Amino acid sequence: MEYIRVLLVESNPTDSDALQEMLAASRGVECHIERIATLAQCLARLDAQAFDVLLLDLDLPDGRGLNALTKVQVRAPSAPIVVLLGEDDFELSVRAIRTGAQDSLVKAHLDGRQLLRALRHAIARRAGGHRPVSAAELVQHDGREGRPAWLAMGGIVYDVTGSRMWKNGVHARKHAAGTDLGDALAAAPHGEEVLARFPVVGELVPQRTNAQRLVALIERLHLHPISVHFPQACSILAAIFATLFAAGGDRSLDETSWHLLLAAFVATPAAIATGLFDWRVTYRANRTPVFVAKIALSSVLALLVAACFAWRLLDPDVLAARTPASWAYLALLLALVPAAVGLGHLGGRIVFPE
Ligand code: HEM
Ligand code: HEM
Fold first, then answer.
1. Which candidate, 140, 165, 281, 317, has a CA 20 to 30 Å from the CA of 181?
2. Where does the pLDDT of residue 95 fall: very low under 50, low under 70, confident under 90, or very high at 90 and above?
3. CA–centroid distance for 318 within its chain
4. For the domain 132-204, what is the CATH code?
């Protein structure tokens, strides 16, 4: 039987009991669980002993969020870590995975099968992982005419050739080997634990459509972090140069401000577009307060930039005239500064949620 040593770092005793019970009830795998309640104890235990996998709550009394995760990673760089979240915090979950956690689970929505699967996959992935198995390769292992019988479940490919229950690649009269059995297990009289005794062949490579490949490519280009600095720099500098001109500077300062405004007018929609793309793709258009604020504030920035641009375009002497309209124009330009800085701050809160 498979044996897994789990270090469970969870300060809430009720959650800790529930997790331990779930793991104790899993069939086909024996979990030895050591429970501790603080980050300090966790670091001390990692110095003393190696574990197969860590279940780390990200809300510990002496360590929270990605800070806690990073500290654990520094202490045990090779340990697979599955983080536990109190609530469905999608941003934190994405960040934790990017920081190197193998998986993230929401405690409230957890069941034993999902938990065990996450632990086993975390261990396998960390161990250098499963080799990729393509859909075409899976189909060829259908158990017929003496061929091996493989099946995919939850993205993992198992070899069930040795099972009497999968003779000729057919199981319970309707399930065929060589296929992805996805959600079929929900209707079975047993759970995923029946698979525990079979060797894992590898990880099924998800089939991607051309559109998905294109999205992945665009995502890898990191267009938003690249494009955001142009509207920020151009609009803030446009306001600064206009102020210098208004304070008695040379006319060339006004010209510079105008050209910067032109650049901001072009760059702002581009930055908003890349932001919306990133939000939809990476954050699945999750409407958290930070994103709602970003969308609102970037609309304000776009409107302000467009208004300043149109004003200066229609009246090139608006600032030089030094009439009340000049001060109104300058005030509008200066309003770009808090909008651009605020957007940068909100962006920083997404990238560094601590
Ligand atoms: C309605 C559908 C299904 C029925 C009626 C069914 C029935 C059974 C029964 C009666 C057993 C033996 C008892 C046990 O080990 O608990 C079994 C074992 C097993 N089943 Fe299913 N099953 C179904 C679907 C599935 C699916 C979708 C999978 C794919 C993951 C699967 C994989 C297995 C495996 C790997 C075993 C263990 C075989 C062994 O130990 O040799 N079953 N199934
Ligand atoms: C002109 C308007 C905008 C500016 C100046 C801006 C600025 C920023 C900045 C400075 C960052 C941090 C980048 C980094 O350090 O990697 C950021 C990140 C981000 N922003 Fe924006 N943003 C704007 C509009 C938007 C909009 C409309 C959305 C859509 C909701 C959005 C979504 C995001 C996302 C998803 C990230 C995280 C990127 C990542 O995970 O790599 N942004 N933004």
1. 281
2. confident
3. 47
4. 3.10.120.10
Q: Does domain 2-126 have CATH number 3.40.50.2300?
A: yes
Q: Is the CB of 278 under 6 A from ligand 2?
A: yes
Cβ neighbors of 87 (< 8 A, separation 6 or more) are 106, 108
Closest ligand, as measured to the CA of 295: 2
Tokens of 344: 């940068």
Whole-number percent of the chain with pLDDT over 90: 58
Residues in the chain: 354
Measure the CA–CA gap between 332 and 325, rounded to whole angstroms: 11
The domains of the chain are located at: 2-126, 132-204, 211-351
Measured in angstroms, how far is the CA atom of residue 229 from the centroid of ligand 2? 10
User: What is the distance between the alpha carbons of residues 215 and 278, in angstroms, rounded to a whole number?
Assistant: 10
Token digits of residue 179: 């296929």
Is residue 102 over pLDDT 90?
A: no
